[in-house]
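A note from the maintainers: we've had questions about how concatenated examples are separated. There is no special marker in the raw files; a new sequence line simply starts the next protein. For clarity in this README we add a label.
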Amino acid sequence: MKPRSRAEAATAAVAPPGATARVPRGEEGRGRRRVAVGVPALVMLAVGLRGLDRNGMWRDEAVSFQVGRRTVPQIWRLLHDVDAVHGLYYLLAHAVLTVHPGEVVLRLPSVCAAAVTAALVAALGARLLRPRAGLWAGLLYAGTPMAGHYAQEGRSYALVAAGATGATLLFVRAVEGGSRARAWAAYGAVLALTCWLHEFAVLLLCAHAVSLALARAEARAWRGWGCAAGGVVVTLVPLVLVSRGQAAQVAWLRRPTAVSAQELARAFFGPSGAVCAVCLALVCAGLAGLVKRRGEITLVGVALPLTVVPPAVLMLASQVSPLFVDRYVLYALSGAPLLVVAGAERVAGAVGRLPLGGRRVPPRLAALAGVLAVGAGFLHQLPVLRADRDPGTRPDDLGAVSRVVARQTAPGDAVLFVPALARNAALAYPGAFRGLRDVALVEGAAGSGTLYGREAGPGEVRRRVARLDRVWVVAYPGLLAGRRRPASPVARAELAVLRRDFTGRKEIRRGGLTVRLYVRDPLSGPVSRPRSPLSGPPRPGRS
């Protein structure tokens, strides 16, 4: 009997018993694969570009923006103390913002990376199954609200997802291509670069090891993967050593629970209950193709570990030292649509054997039906995608805060940021704060090699505030209301003086922060200097 090609074997791996899998050949097959890869990329690009200008950045994006606008030596100095894990991304942001310093430009690399990821997901489906499966999987990825959300984030996570999915495709090629050294070197290089964008991408090695185990791979494949994995780990050691010393940055994280796992599953398979239920049912149908012939890697054998292993390992590790946030494993989302499509192919194979007017269902009709089904799911979740374009869905909106400050304050007014994190608004939108006196600041963020600048000590801050008769405060509401106790001694000193000697007069809440005017209480005693001419009518917004 004539041996099957790898494409035929891969298609048969998930095809229902008795079904005849048709593998496109020649120019026709290449044309279908190009369509299968290109269409999802274009759809993801359109989804990412729609509403990209939200006219406001939230705190993490603001950090990317203000750090990216620093010089390379200033970025290098910052990384010695904080955010080493994001160092490579900050250098990329610096290059991008050199072209044009704007929040839309900051987000464009994420949009492009998400489009590349959708194309790579499609390429995996087309390689391990057939072009129509790749088309369905790529479109599913593009229509997932979680993918659309991070496509518009000025952070590294969409780029990490693209790198991890590309590394997975190279992994499949290396296993199927006879484990040549060059193929494994390419795999290791891409994965190492991805890990330098975010170190938790190294968990992808665990997923690929499980895929090799499920395929019962030959020793040669294990040796090639082991050499590549060793190279990745060695190159990552310096970043790990530095970032361990900065672990205090994630001290706010809590241990993940079963609810965390459920929320992640809904993010991967659809926040809508109906969509999620259908997708999980198809996943169960596709699990029958998990293991096939010895040494044969299957679509489910790649997609299942990719989806499950990195989040599971990080959640388990976080029971000892909390490190889990869903965006840290965004790259695992790439496997979810492939799992759904594996089940959809089995269903399509069963339906294709049913007579339709005396004939079987044509393959093109089946492919179109799958696209329409994906489109229906996309329309069902469209309200979620639309709502996500609202800046109010982020933890805060520093653009809205800066517009309030620009309207309400006058040149020469004093301002306090409680805590120092709130100064992020001034660093991201300096025009709105131009002319204001930052009471607590000693040295700026870029010059001090910090994220938010270096502040005076608690005693000096008390003395500075004591010389004021009015001051604007930009703060998180929980601190001003007394529901939270600030961790910083400087912030505690600021709040203590404000509560003792000042009265809040005017308050505006925007974008998750409070802008409040404090005026000295007449009963608190005279100020230690003559009143400066800080008052005046509200000024127009600054550019």
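[label: protein 2]
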Amino acid sequence: MKKYIYIVMLSTLLLSLGACKKYLNTEHYFKEDRLSLDKVFTNKNYSNQWLADVYTHLRGSNAEVASKGLTPFNFISDDMFYGDRSNSYKRFKNGEYDEGSEQGSWGSCYEGIRDASIYIHNIDMNKEMTANEVADTKAQARFLRAYYYWLLLRKYGPIPILPDEGEDYTKDYQDIARPRSAYDECVEFITSEFALAAKDLPLFNTNRDKGRASRGAALAARAKVYLFAASPLFNGNPGLANLVDHEGKKLVSQEYKNEKWAKAAAAAKDVINMNTYRLFTAPFKATDQGPGQPKTIVPPYHPKYSDQSFPMGWKNIDPFESYRQLFNGAISYSDNPELIFSRVMEQSSEGIDQMVLHQMPFSMKGWNTHGITQKQADAYYMNDGTNIAIAPRRAGYTTDATGHLPLPAKVSLQYAEREPRFYASVAYNGSIWENISALKPENRHIQVFYYRDHPNGKQASSPDFYIRTGLGIKKFYNPIDSYMEGGFIVPKVEPAMRYADILLIYAEAMNELTGSYSIPSYTGSETIMVSRDIQEISKYISEVRIRGGVPDYGNEVYGSPELLRKAIKRERQIELFAEGQRYFDLRRWKDAPVEEATPVLGCNMNMTESQRDLFNTPVPIPSMPTIFVDKMYLWPISHSELRKNRKLTQNPGWTTFN
């Protein structure tokens, strides 16, 4: 029962705070529950430790960017994959997971929600804190409560919103159980909570408070919630008409409202108007700066962008390093002007460092199992902003390491002259892994091929440990990273929310508007005017593209909402690759039935180096299934929760308990 969980949690906390062991006695606790809370919330240290415990629910299955041992959602869309635990991957991709799969987030989020609510309703009694400290920490708890609701809403769809007044947790579970709230009701509550929290949160956090909630984090999350609410999956979708509560009430409105896009646009503009965040850029380098730090590869000359400094052009920046260093640990949390929110801490044994380990090849003591699909590789533009030619693909190979920078010798020319984000993200066949921190010089700057007759290719002795598509992942990898003797991994910061995402949210929402809207700001003290303003959209989306070293879209694209929608989707696919976004984006757009059911293509891993033309001709990958059925739009609710709460209803297509 929930009351038992609460008693154990509170008793454990009280013991950890040095409180009397008599509170472990359940009967005594029921009589003295108010006294117990008084002991915690009249003491500053105890209160701070309670709030710190609320933050811990951000870890584990609630991580945004982590390896598949914590959350599979970074790997089970159409852009990247894992080859180890292949039965697990196939189970997800075949839709064979069930109501008991990956359910840790439900309980963890609701525990965090409960603990945050207790903090909100009791911290005002603390006289050891200043009024500002009470307001700030209460706002942090409010942010966390809303954020946990958001994580649940994104995964499960409509969820129960618990009463905001102090709940009596000594009641039986059945007495405090609630039905699922309508999706729009969830959105209204969560966004209003984020707005309320933002008013008392600091503008941004100092390095000492990194990982804590800030005003920017609350407003960015608010924009994200509004974006999902405006998207096709939840904005007048007849496909979810059968999603109802225990009394048969529809949980998803069947009426499309264009104003929902206006709310998303205005919420993103609230973040922009803070004038606190900017896109990270690395400076232009005229010469090599040492191992792993090559001189800037300048994009092809463009009359509009080549002679101007960022954000109007790329004259003074290094687009490759601007993107690569954003993720590989080269810049700290406090030095990253783009980072809005991060859990900061590594996620036990399944954090980003473990993603890097599984990306790295065998010859560097890596697991050699995480890769990307041919579709994802082809999504990246050429360095002049045009599309890659795929019918036919570019023939031939490099003969040296200077003719097609940054390609070394013996690499397929289909990887030549690609945009900088491609080289910062993709480990193509024949790419260089710097491995600088390796103790022995011969273990540094390794060229890795995935041919069958090479050690990092498909091997009969290790059928799960090879890159299934022949296209590995470089994102998050730092040239210093090494798992070989003497080597080490540079700590990485989780990019849970960053400014580039906000700019893309703003552009996407603005593009969908069919009229002009006046939307109140989060404070309610002013209004934000939004409409499909092409110059306004271009102003912000061009920043993302220029930082990536590619030109902005032309008038043809901006003149068509359909073409711009397609372009923005592709921009999110590229810019936010491997950040846990694609899985949810495809669902909210209702694109998953096509994109996730399209056969996965990759290099022909059965070919040797002598058969390199055949190797580099994309073929379907039989070990990577693709299927999508409607029930995969939303994650199933576990049978155990349905048994405990008879007011809960299951998501469409999934079974209820017998």
